[in-house]
Design a protein that fits this description.
The complex is a heterodimer of chains A (about 375) and B (about 350). With about 375 residues, chain A is an alpha/beta fold. Chain A contains 15 helices and 5 strands. Chain A starts with 6 loop residues before the first helix and ends in a 6-residue tail after the last helix. With about 350 residues, chain B is an alpha/beta fold. The chains are: A alpha/beta (about 375), B alpha/beta (about 350).
């Protein structure tokens, strides 16, 4: 094998690959899929639970009870319906998924309060979606606590929320979506590039031609890298203009780390393409091993610092965590290269590229098996 | 006719079994992948990393800190200055920082208004909010403020809000969708690519029969995976409650996989090669998953999306399965879900027959 790469050969191959990608209309997909995912899910995933349907059964009909009810109606988290149904009927409505919460105010509510006795409120929550249920529970408790504490507590929390002052869902989710999309989309594109040739038999052109292994890999990856690089900018525009996510860090860092991350994704796809013998295996494998980790270890659903045991280890194995750390920094925090941790993570990402490409070159055989 | 039908089904099953790699990948998805999804994530705050700076030098701060315990919090870490603390938050090592000022203890003893400074990483907004709620109620109970109201909270259907089984189940449902669409589409497109599909259509067999047999074979593969996964992971590893009937879930799953295979058929009709299948199926599946209410409940969506969501078979499937597992809805009350899935499947097959069941 020649020790060095020849640029004229690579150029010819890149042209050929680009023409193929354009001809099969895949070029539309290259740009459509990432933007579609970002826009749909950016609008779609609401971690916050708003408009929970709460049915209140007021058995007291007093001034106090209507005050409590008005606290619920004024909250954006609840859509209140006052019912005169029995408890059983209200519970049946939850069972049919027509209501989420039932709150029962006992008949002696006002009397007990005036006497200074404890009264008991019954709350029933649909917990089929477990995390939504806990959020709803917290909101109910929040409303009732604020309604009940007439005397101000002595210690007040002076909270400064960092990075996402308004606690907007978009700010938390959209950068994570970029991390998701840039891992999945390029990988799916490259996963088939080599295995397709194997199945069709055109891989023999490569076996028989004087092109080197490294040249072949570069020629396969370069067109996809070029096409997907544009997505870095497109997604940035969606995030900042459409979703109004603030951008506080350095754009250079964002661009650099994204290019490296796309390279990682390409290399994962390429590695699958080299190992798999059939296209169907390559497709299914890529979908399975990229989409799930990209969600789980993005930090969107759960902060990495809260992970323990297996999930902590796995989060550190997948490249998603390192990229997302940098991504959230550039959007919401803005430490940039000043933070040693970010420089370290950038180096780890580069390490992934080198290791994956090395593995690819190692497994790619330039002969019949 | 019958023997021909089963001959095609067996042929497809055999060709699936021959590819060891494919079998391995499908097995992996239905077992380890689902296990990882269930084990990995708690959306409620657990093990929140807390750091603090204590300038008050007193006992009250210690008492408050001792209330932060597992499973919600890991033991608080002390930092010497506020700068060190905020550095740790910026590096995402700490999620909540508490700063006790110099006069914290003094003010509290003098029964004046006392402030506890909280620095909160709100990158994941809902967890940030919930953590604040925890802190608030810890302070309330610490000060022993009597609220004259007591809440009796009952969580229906999933008493301990077991998130793991829920995550594993959702992963299973989306996995079924992905696999059945991709597998079915590729079975047809492979033949299109190789040119054997045209020969198939030229043969004196009804194309509908071939199409149905081929989709059935993929449905069988996925159903096999579902049963494995239910046995080993969903019930084996996680204590997923099963309040409804097991067989109504299997029945619903069968209907659903069959109609999702119709989506695969549709993808196969518009795609020319496997590469296009991979791209199209993702572009089609993402809106389907989005509209299904898997992420956000349907009633919180934009009204326009709410109407569209009636066209996602996954919506009927998820609501149906949720009702079976958690709410324990009886078999006959599930009919809207059966019909929803069946009608959509029927439409998809008609399109599929028209699109690829004809030679010209």
């Amino acid at each position: 094998m020649k020790s060095f790469v020849r640029f004229s050969v690579i150029k010819a191959f890149v042209l050929k690959e680009l023409t193929e990608l354009v001809r099969t209309k895949l070029i539309i997909m290259v740009y459509m899929m990432p933007s579609m995912v970002t826009i749909l899910f950016g609008y779609g995933i609401a971690m916050d639970v708003t408009h929970s349907r709460i049915s209140i059964i007021d058995n007291d009909n007093s001034k106090y009870s209507s005050e409590l009810i008005s606290k619920f109606s004024h909250s954006k988290y609840f859509d209140v319906t006052l019912t005169h149904e029995s408890e059983a009927e209200a519970l049946e409505a939850i069972k049919k998924a027509q209501s989420d919460i039932v709150l029962i105010i006992p008949s002696s509510f006002e009397k007990n309060l005036l006497k200074g006795q404890k009264s008991e409120l019954g709350v029933f929550i649909d917990a089929a979606f477990a995390n939504r249920a806990s959020t709803m529970q917290n909101y109910v408790q929040g409303v009732i606590q604020s309604a009940a504490t007439t005397s101000a507590p002595m210690i007040t929390l002076n909270t400064r929320t960092l990075f996402n002052q308004a606690m907007r869902d978009e700010d938390a989710i959209v950068p994570g979506l970029i991390g998701l999309v840039l891992l999945v989309a390029p990988a799916i594109l490259t996963a088939l590039l080599i295995v397709k040739e194997k199945e069709k038999g055109t891989i023999f052109n490569f076996y028989a031609s004087p092109i080197g292994k490294l040249e072949f890999l570069i020629a396969k990856l370069l067109p996809v890298l070029m096409l997907h690089s544009l997505n870095i900018f497109i997604l940035f525009i969606w995030a900042t203009y459409l979703f109004d996510v603030p951008f506080r860090g350095s754009f250079f860092l964002y661009w650099l780390s994204s290019e490296i991350y796309i390279l990682i994704s390409l290399s994962i796809g390429m590695l699958i393409s080299i190992i798999a013998k059939r296209q169907i295996v390559a497709v299914v494998l890529t979908v399975i091993i990229t989409i799930l980790p990209a969600f789980l270890y993005s930090g969107m659903l759960m902060p990495i610092s809260s992970m323990q045991g297996i999930s902590w280890v796995e989060a550190h194995i997948f490249p998603v965590m390192y990229y997302n750390h940098i991504l959230y920094d550039t959007f919401l925090i803005g430490q940039g290269f000043d933070s040693p941790k970010i420089v370290l993570y950038l180096c780890i990402l580069i390490g992934y590229v080198v290791a994956l490409l090395g593995l690819g070159a190692l497994f790619l055989k330039k002969e019949m098996r | 006719m019958k023997s021909l039908f089963f001959a095609i089904v067996f042929k497809e099953l055999k060709s699936f079994m021959r590819s060891a790699a494919l079998v391995a990948v499908v097995l992996y998805s239905f077992t380890i992948d689902i296990y990882v999804a269930g084990e990995g994530i708690d959306i409620e705050p657990r093990n929140v990393a807390v750091g603090y700076v204590d300038n008050s030098g007193g006992g009250i701060s210690k008492k408050i800190l001792s209330n932060l315990h597992s499973p919600e919090f890991v033991a608080p870490v002390q930092f010497l200055s506020q700068k060190e603390l905020s550095n740790a938050i910026y590096n995402k090592e700490i999620m909540v920082g508490l700063v006790f000022d110099n006069d914290f203890e003094k003010l509290y003893r003098e029964k004046k208004n006392t402030q506890l400074n909280v620095l909160l990483d709100a990158t994941s907004a809902s967890q940030g909010f919930t953590t604040l709620m925890y802190l608030q109620s810890i302070l309330l109970s610490f000060e022993d403020i009597q609220i004259p109201l007591e809440l009796k909270i009952h969580k229906l259907f999933n008493q301990n809000s077991d998130n793991k089984s829920f995550m594993a189940l959702s992963e299973l449902l989306s996995l079924i969708t992905m696999l059945v669409v991709i597998l079915t589409a590729i079975v047809f497109v492979k033949e299109k690519e190789d040119g054997t599909w045209d020969i198939m259509l030229l043969m004196p067999i009804d194309a509908k029969l071939t199409i149905l047999a081929k989709t059935l074979s993929q449905v069988i593969i996925v159903m096999g995976g579902v049963i494995l996964s239910l046995g080993f992971v969903i019930f084996g590893m996680f204590d997923t409650p099963m309040n409804g009937s097991f067989w109504s879930f299997i029945f619903l799953t069968f209907l659903y996989t069959f109609s999702s295979a119709g989506i695969g058929l549709f993808v196969a009709a518009i795609a020319k090669d496997v590469m296009q299948v991979a791209q199209f199926s993702i572009v089609i599946m993402i809106p389907l998953i989005f509209l299904s209410g898997a992420w956000t409940p349907v009633y919180t969506m934009h009204p326009f999306f709410q109407v569209l969501s009636f066209f996602s078979p996954l919506r009927y499937y998820i609501e149906g399965s949720e009702s079976i597992f958690y709410r324990g809805t009886p078999f006959l009350d599930l009919y809207p879900y059966y019909f929803g899935v069946m009608i959509l499947g029927f439409i998809l097959y008609i399109i599929g027959f028209k699109k690829i069941g004809r030679l010209f």
